[in-house]
UniProtKB/TrEMBL annotation:
Higher taxonomy: Bacteria, Bacillati, Actinomycetota, Actinomycetes, Micromonosporales
Entry protein name: Malonyl-CoA:ACP transacylase (MAT) domain-containing protein
Domain Malonyl-CoA:ACP transacylase (MAT), residue spans: 22-334
GO biological process: fatty acid biosynthetic process
InterPro entries: Ac_transferase_dom_sf, Acyl_transferase_dom, Acyl_Trfase/lysoPLipase, Mal-CoA-ACP_Trans/PKS_FabD, Malonyl_transacylase_ACP-bd
GO cellular component: cytosol
Gene Ontology MF term list: [acyl-carrier-protein] S-malonyltransferase activity
C-alpha cells in the first residue's frame, strides 16, 4: 500500500478535509506532464524512480525491456512504442503520482477508477504490489492486441449516442463509456464506427476516433476476457485498503468481490462515470487527477457542478517539500 494519511501539507492547492483521487482510462495521456513535474519537484522525481525501477523489472521479465527511457521521448513518442510499453508507462505514471502525493501527506481517502485506471488504482490502494500491477498490465496489453476494432468519442450523452448508433445501422457498435451527459465513447468494428462518425458529422455532432489500436468494453470480447482471466488468476489481488470505486462495477469493491473477474469485466461491460461520481460526492471534497489529461475532471464538473477539482500534474506545487511533521509513507512493492 502506498500509505495512509499522516499529516497535511499546505500548498497552493487548499488542504482538503476529504480527497478523491481519480484514475482515468486511456486516450488522454501526455507523458510531458509527468516529466515536467519530476524535473521541478523532488517528491515526483523520487516517486518516478521508485515506481519505474519495479515496472522496468517486470518489463524485462516479460521480454518488453525497460520502459523508463520512454519517459524522455516527449509528445507523441509513445505512439511508436509497443502496446505493452505504452500501457506500462501510463500505469507507472499514475502510480507515481499517487506515491508522490502520499510522500507529501496527501494520501487520498478514496480512489475512483475508469477502465484501464483500475490497474494503477489497485496498486494505489494496496490490493496489488507495484510489480504485480505491472504484470497485470502486460497481460491486459497482450489481450487488447487481439481485440480488433476501435473506439470513438461522441459529443453526446448516452441516450443521444444510442439514437445515433441506431440511425447509422451500426448494430455491432455499443456504448463503451459514459463520461457525462455530453460525452460518450462507443466501441465496435472500424467500418461501423466510420459510418457513425460520418452521420455525426452530417448532424453537426462532434466525434473523434481515439488513438487506440483496439476496441474494448464490448460484449463480443467475451472469449478474450476468458483468456485474460486464465492468464492473471495466479497474480495475487487483495482487498483494497482504501475504498476503490469502479466505473465498470458501478460501486466500490467489497471484500467478497472476485477482483480478477472484475478486472476482465472491463473488456465486455461499459463504464459509467456519472454513477460512481455521485457516490463519492462528499460536501467540501477535493478531486485530484492521477492522470496527465483533463477529460475526467471535465466530467466531474459536468456531473457534480461547482466542486474543487485539480489536474494534479498541471498544478504541481501540491508536491512541494513536506513539512517536518509529515511522515513519509513506504511503498508496498516487490520486484
Amino acid at each position: 500500500m502506498l500509505g495512509r494519511k499522516q499529516a497535511r501539507h499546505r500548498s497552493t492547492v487548499e488542504d482538503p478535509l476529504d480527497t478523491t483521487l481519480l484514475f482515468p482510462g486511456q486516450g488522454d495521456f501526455d507523458i510531458r506532464a509527468l516529466t515536467t513535474a519530476a524535473a521541478s519537484y523532488p517528491a515526483v522525481c523520487e516517486a518516478v524512480e521508485l515506481v519505474f525501477e519495479q515496472v522496468d523489472a517486470v518489463g524485462r521479465e516479460h521480454g518488453v525491456g525497460p520502459v523508463r527511457p520512454w519517459l524522455e521521448v516527449g509528445a507523441g513518442g509513445l505512439h511508436e512504442a509497443s502496446l505493452e510499453v505504452s500501457l506500462l508507462v501510463q500505469y507507472g505514471s499514475s502510480v507515481a503520482v499517487h506515491a508522490a502525493l502520499c510522500s507529501v501527506g496527501r494520501a487520498p481517502d478514496r480512489v475512483l477508477a475508469v477502465s484501464f485506471g483500475e490497474l494503477p488504482a489497485l496498486a494505489a490502494t494496496g490490493a496489488v504490489t507495484i510489480a504485480d500491477g505491472a504484470r497485470l498490465t502486460v497481460h491486459l496489453a497482450r489481450t487488447l492486441r487481439r481485440c480488433v476494432g476501435g473506439l470513438t468519442a461522441l459529443g453526446a450523452g448516452e441516450a443521444r449516442a444510442g439514437e445515433l448508433l441506431r440511425a447509422a445501422d451500426a448494430d455491432d457498435v455499443v456504448v463503451a463509456c459514459v463520461n457525462d451527459d455530453a460525452s460518450t465513447v462507443v466501441a465496435g468494428p472500424v467500418e461501423q464506427l466510420s459510418a457513425v462518425e460520418r452521420l455525426a458529422a452530417g448532424l453537426g455532432l462532434r466525434s473523434a476516433r481515439l488513438p487506440l489500436p483496439f476496441t474494448s468494453h464490448h460484449p463480443g470480447l467475451a472469449p478474450r476476457a476468458a483468456e485474460l482471466l486464465t492468464a492473471i488468476r495466479d497474480i495475487p489481488i487483495d482487498h483494497p485498503r482504501v475504498p476503490l470505486y469502479s466505473a465498470v462495477a458501478g460501486r466500490s469493491y467489497r471484500s467478497t468481490d472476485d477482483l480478477h473477474g472484475a478486472l476482465v469485466d472491463g473488456l465486455v461491460r461499459p463504464a459509467r462515470v456519472p454513477d460512481v461520481l455521485r457516490q463519492v460526492a462528499v460536501d467540501g471534497a477535493v478531486f485530484l487527477d492521477a492522470g496527465t489529461g483533463r477529460s475526467l475532471l471535465r466530467s466531474v464538473r459536468r456531473v457534480l457542478g461547482p466542486v474543487t477539482a485539480h489536474p494534479t500534474l498541471a498544478e504541481p506545487a501540491i508536491f512541494s517539500t513536506p513539512s517536518p511533521a509529515t511522515v513519509a509513507v513506504p511503498v508496498r512493492g516487490r520486484p
